[in-house]
Amino acid sequence: MRRRSFLTLAAGAAVPLAAPAIAQGKAWPSKPVKVIVPFAAGGGTDIVARPWCDKLSQIFGQQFVIENRGGASGMIGTEAAARSAADGYTLLMSSSTTIVNLPLLRTVPYDPKSLEPIARLGDAVTGFAVHPSVGVKTFQELLDYCKKNPGKLAFGSSGPGTGPHLRLEMLKYRTGVDILHVPYRGGADSLTDLLSNNVQLMNEPVTTAHVKAGKLTLLNVNHFERSVEFPDIPTLTELGYPNSDAPIWISLWCPAGFSPEIKQRLNEEIVKQMKGTEMPDKLRLAGSAPVVQTIKELEAFREADAKIIGELIKAGNIRID
How far is the CA of 49 from the CAs of 175, 193, 282, in angstroms? Predict the structure, then answer.
């Protein structure tokens, strides 16, 4: 056997978790992988992306490096990912904002179908968190306050058309309350103003730690089941508002044309981690719930979610500039 061939085989044997080859026999990944998060650091998507990139770096033996490209409600970073080479070295970790919501609300500078799904990384299990100065302790008290004081409360979101924004629009549509929407460049910026009482409401994972610290009051859970972190807080369905959520789900995507074998391998590794204990625990700390889905199941879920959000946009006459 030639020395070069022997060294190639030996290197492969030393890294048993190496993914299938994608070009000229080279194993993937042979260098660091850039992971675009199209929102600012410290926001809901970012705090879910970081433990996942750490874990993928351990599994594949190369660094999965986050690049935060915030702005335009995530469109800037998503466009960059969609236009990247399908060589596996640029991936996208995004919420449903850029994959489903924005393409239904406005013309976006990318074709969402040019991004192919790899795996679902977690669902945001949060609710409406209110500043204590408002003086409400329950969801019903919030509704009563809003009806007596229309337009007085301000809701901070990570941008127009984002999941938190649509959760506000769903609340307004289902209950008839009047709350001012104040968009920010990211959830972290919005949180700063919430803690300072410049806005009074948010609905994002970044509020979780501050609810636990007693700085904010959580009024409900926007999910089909209660939060493990806040077992005493009821869901919207339990509060009498079924089918009133606008789901916020975070997932991993790649430009169209990427190796099907490696996409499958990534999905299988992520699903494996979801069935363990380490990653689910980290996701819950980040305000998210673990979700197990195959690539085909994620494709079907995207279509189903698009239908739900499309109906909300039409029924609520939601517009963004």
Answer: 33, 23, 11
